[in-house]
Amino acid sequence: MASPTLIELAQKTRQGARQLAGLTTEEKNQAIEAIAQSLEQATPEIVAANQADCEAATAAGIAKPLYHRLKLDETKLKTNIAGVRDVQKLPDPVGRVQIHRELDEGLVLKRISCPLGVLGVIFEARPEAAIQISTLAIKSGNGVILKGGKEALQSCEAIVKAIRQGLSQTAVSPDVVQLLTSREETVALLKLDPYVDLIIPRGSNSFVRFVQENTNIPVLGHADGVCHLYLDESAEREKAIAITVDAKTQYPAACNAIETLLVHRSCAPQILPPVAQALQEKGVKLLGDEASVELLGIPAATEADWSTEYSDLILAIKQVDSLEEALNHINTYGSKHTDAIVTENPQAAQLFLNQVDAAGVYHNCSTRFADGFRYGFGAEVGISTQQMPPRGPVGLEGLITYKYQVTGNGHISATYSGANAKPFTHRDMG
Amino acid sequence: MASPTLIELAQKTRQGARQLAGLTTEEKNQAIEAIAQSLEQATPEIVAANQADCEAATAAGIAKPLYHRLKLDETKLKTNIAGVRDVQKLPDPVGRVQIHRELDEGLVLKRISCPLGVLGVIFEARPEAAIQISTLAIKSGNGVILKGGKEALQSCEAIVKAIRQGLSQTAVSPDVVQLLTSREETVALLKLDPYVDLIIPRGSNSFVRFVQENTNIPVLGHADGVCHLYLDESAEREKAIAITVDAKTQYPAACNAIETLLVHRSCAPQILPPVAQALQEKGVKLLGDEASVELLGIPAATEADWSTEYSDLILAIKQVDSLEEALNHINTYGSKHTDAIVTENPQAAQLFLNQVDAAGVYHNCSTRFADGFRYGFGAEVGISTQQMPPRGPVGLEGLITYKYQVTGNGHISATYSGANAKPFTHRDMG
Prior knowledge:
The structure is a homodimer. Chain A has 2 domains: 4-213, Aldehyde Dehydrogenase, Chain A, domain 1, CATH 3.40.605; 227-369, Aldehyde Dehydrogenase, Chain A, domain 2, CATH 3.40.309.
């Protein structure tokens, strides 16, 4: 499926990445500084290329929110270049000794963190994604094949040209950052199993789902973010109001905003009307189950609402008879992203944190904290809702794997087998 | 694709597993002890069921190695019951605090290890796999849906009956261990994405490949084990002989046995003849590239040999001009399982350990050490050759994921956004 040219490009990236994997933290940071300087020098070209992209998009009748994402003026570029320099300060995730164990005298096992290899990153409009992800890839020792949205083509070309120019004067080969430009190449990239180790899609839910369904390469990301807030029987009124309003309205398009509010039936008459009023004052459209429709005089929610991510000022409300019903609802309709409980009852909180199967389980705080920067990771590569690690907000750690190194002095397994088997010492060396 | 009965069974397993996830180490160990006692009591039934399986298999003309795997006599069962009790001693992988960080005063982030959920384990002949994996699943807080080979049907039924009987007197629901019996159910199990979190296939390479290609559920395992040994220019003769013989002949059917021997051209005339002689004395059939055919008078290897896992006393030999050529060969034909170098040159060793992209990279020791027990993990769930963790030999850790818990006291994200944003403290709490 992939053209010979694309395979060759992928092989070059792989080769560059192998060499990058062996560089020191200092060499990688020098390369990142060179990128920052090169982007500074190329600012006029990048801004002009973006101007051209924006004009073409305007002529094609691009939607306003998309236009804002596409737009990359000098100020925004400056912020992004500052972001590049910030990555220098992040600790190097490569070369950490995770296990160090003597298996027997002179036979030593080490588990050491190392780069994944080559990343395939497919993003929609925002051209600055090319800057962020290239820098994080280099810091973590990985090569990266980028594919931007077609609206951002000229911007991405100018950015990647500057990045590669910067790298050309460093220990890092410019081959580690590549740009694909056609849609055919995107599809082909998803089939490049032997050359690409991780796909990171950045875009709409349907786009991420398309990627997940069309590749055998591991995908870091999430399609849906159907997050819940549950107001328990003993929820404190003021906390319930503040957290609900924040979780729904602080940034409704975010994946960690809530879509469904569950309320214990016994406290609904007291707590739900003021919560609803506060939401409505913020312009939130409410939908409800039968009891909530009756209580609040709002339109009815349908079955489909319980699994819908509105990404907008809309919230579905449901009353439940028990914490167990809330848990069942969340574990049935949730997307394993982030779910929260408001309660003053520590047993209820503990049960919720234990039994909700999600990357993030929160007590008495807003779901909006689910974010790599807020968690203190220094960077966010994506948020994963899969079951296996890495899960939740993923920092540089998500671009890293490990290998087992065993060094001996002629040690063979026969020594440790059979009737006179020598025992292993299995002594941790700290 | 899955029948309503199968979905119902999977849901029951999930429900049992949710409850299991919240139990203490002591409760899980009591359940494991109950399994051991129940298997002891049911020994006559299990041995009789296995006898019946063996007779049916013999009548059907089963191959001898397969028969040996199928056979489960009282002695073998006793060993397995002792293995069950050993699992009690393993540290509980659940509930470990991996990150503990104050985000701000009163707002605390914890990353805590937790069970994956439900495992789907498909194994071929060996019925005792049902015992081992059920015990490890319970220790790690997971439910498990088992599917054994059809030859082992009666044995598996007797074993699972005993396990469930044992569990019925404990805090762990018998529903957490389920047995499927038909081949149709195997295929359906692979499609149970919402109910099964990890598939563990145990069987031949082609069987594992079939599983990998027919499911979207993560698979823990490996299809191929094409391991290499490279004798570098400065390899010491005695180490080279001992390690080559051990890595090829100590257990040739193992996935960590070598299939290809690479030798630096400059030392081949000195080192290869004695190595070849030692191998031939152990009955190893050698195949060679042109230079090795000439040197040793052995049959020629074809291109296909470089990617073949013989799982038998056959070894392909190739001479290379440099360490770089050896690295390229391994990174091209290898299966990322385990590869080793024999050398007295520390720089060469370091380059090899850095640049070979495999779960195991070894220096001056046999590839046969690639094993969870030998690494000191106490148990081995499988060996993974994928790029992302868990990689290499995987112990109980492979059945575990984590979740982020955030607890606050009414904290909302608006406080930390905008012009007067409060900074996070991001203080690690050790």
